[in-house]
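Input record (one chain):
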Amino acid sequence: MTNVVSPSRIVVLGHPKLADSIREAAEIAAFLMAQGLETAHGSLYDETLRRQVHAGEFDLLIAVGGDGTMLRAGHLCAPSGIPILGVNKGRLGFLFQIVEGGWRKMLEWLLAGKYWVEHRMMLRAEHIRAGERLGSWQALNDVVVARGPNMRPIHVTASVDGQYLTRFVCDGLIAATASGSTAYALACGGPILPPELRNILLIPIAPHLSFDRAIVLSEGVTVSMTILSDNGILSMDGQTPLGLEEHDRVDVRAGENTVKFIRFGDPGYFYRNLTEHMNQNTLIGLPR
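The corresponding structure, as predicted from the sequence alone:
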């Protein structure tokens, strides 16, 4: 472990829909306050606390919840560069090191400065229609162009830095980060990338008689996905999808922000977690 400066202003946020998440957030906050630290706690959706995070009023955010909670915490903290420490109340926990009930020892290490910071790339997605930019978003896991409620596959062309790559007939196309390589992209047969790798993974969803391999692209490129069907949607990190019209284009590149996660011990935690979690999916019915 590398000795670094320990944080002094900490906010602890729980997912309000996960059992005991808010209660455990309060317990963690009480422990930290007993150590003399300036600490606030509450719901991940508390607007007052969110504004304070955006304003950079904290040195660290402790997120108590599941992988979805960590994604939301990443979106919240990345613009202000605040690192995140996750306490897992979910069941998979690819983004976590601290399991439920095991946070006291880790917090002692944290306060002693015995941790390191992991940097994870985000994506920037832009929705283009007839040359006009309709919206821009960041994603930690993935940007997905997919078919909507209509069961017909969609036609999507992909290009890299303006150079035509291929045309897919598929249920969708995923542009993912290394973080996202253990999420939807993994379910679609994609490779697993080390978490700090700064690449873009492009993988089709259920391709039909078209290119069916994942492609790993370098950080500096722009991937353009143009939908040639009238039943498409766009979603970032699994959030509520947006409707796409025929000939809409989605441009994806490395984002300007980086998500910082607090880690303990050696970087091999990722592979230990991977071995533990593979074939252990009991996520059905669990809020994120």
